[in-house]
Request: fold
Amino acid sequence: MTKILITGTAGFIGFNLVQKLIHFDYQIIGLDNINSYYDVNLKYKRLEECGILHSDIQYNKLIQSQKFPNYKFIKLNLEDKENIDKLFENEQFDKVCNLAAQAGVRYSLENPYAYIQSNIVGFLNVLEASKRNKIKHFVYASSSSVYGLNTQMPFSVHHNVDHPISLYAASKKSNELIAHSYSYLFKMPTTGLRFFTVYGPWGRPDMALFIFTKAILEGQKIDIYNNGEMYRDFTYIDDIVEGVKRVIEQNASPNLNWHSNYPDPATSPAPYQIYNIGNNNTVNLMDFIYEIESQLGKKAIKNYMPMQAGDVKGTSADVNDLIKNLNYKPNTSIKKGIEEFLKWYNNYYK
Reply:
């Protein structure tokens, strides 16, 4: 049985990944600091779905799930190097999937230091502990936001991404660079995953689908940026976690054809890989809103706004490497994805 550490398991993607891997041959330890970036009650409810009771949670205490014998959880900050090191030494993980991070492009304009502490210092602590304990594969969350000023569509992992336009994006690009140096120096397989606009049940309240649904149901206006001239590669959560599972199972390996005269950013002579995980089907923001309106049977009150600082007009994922290497292509339609989200939302909020 493979023993894996998954960080960020009170979060949207981490929670869903645990729900997926629990049913396979994994011994899982989940980690999260349960910060207050958004409603902590939602985070505790996710943990309860996995058998971790709110009343049992204490800092730096390993808790056994009451539902799943192969799942334990610990509340811990990535920045707490001493206790991260102890956790690795005590548990002897085979693999690590680091999804914990300070999320959000817009919040990075308000609180930049949170991103440096969690996404740089915390990331390094987990990576360094992985190196010392000879982890077989280190998988980590990057983001489609690293494409920044790029306008060549669809975004390819083989494109240069040296022009991020938010600190959040810069922190994720930094993760990729730091991971590569560890892969090169210490031969540790690392794989970075650039997620594209993830949505679905148990999603984050600061994301578009959640915000729009709540506002429409309550008769509140929704802010539509760049006057609606926006498009996104919306990717359903089940498609994301299936992609992550496949990546975890296939360790990164060196690209034997890599050449320093024309360096490929997505691969390396070291055991290093970058993947996009996106739906490869870009949707106009107004069409996305129309689908929500249609399924709710209620019109949104629209407030058109200029482009926000740090935001990009559009995203589109080239997933050819995902198809070629892992035989996988996300394919859930927004109609189906929004339907599943609304079922969950109505049930959760009664």
Summary: Residues 112-132 form the longest helix (21 residues). The chain has a mean pLDDT of 95. The chain has eleven helices and 14 strands.
